[in-house]
Amino acid sequence: xxxxxxxxxxxxxxxxxxxxxxxxxxxxxxxxxxxxxxxxxxxxxxxxxxxxxxxxxxxxxxxxxxxxxxxxxxxxxxxxxxxxx
Length: 85
Hints:
Structural class: alpha+beta
Radius of gyration: 13 Å
């Protein structure tokens, strides 16, 4: 499969799941080229943005695991084709 670049947005609505989310992110750390995390203390939630590079199957497995965590919302966007240098 061809490597693509993209973005994964994660909204953690249940902060008790933060450790589980970080554990999953650590399992896929070789794909991550950038990360930003923003806590929202007023709403007791957090948002994580990940810049990633990988093939569609790995990205699907990654987002699938994240999306199966209760209280976590996940969206992703990927380039349609391999990025040319």
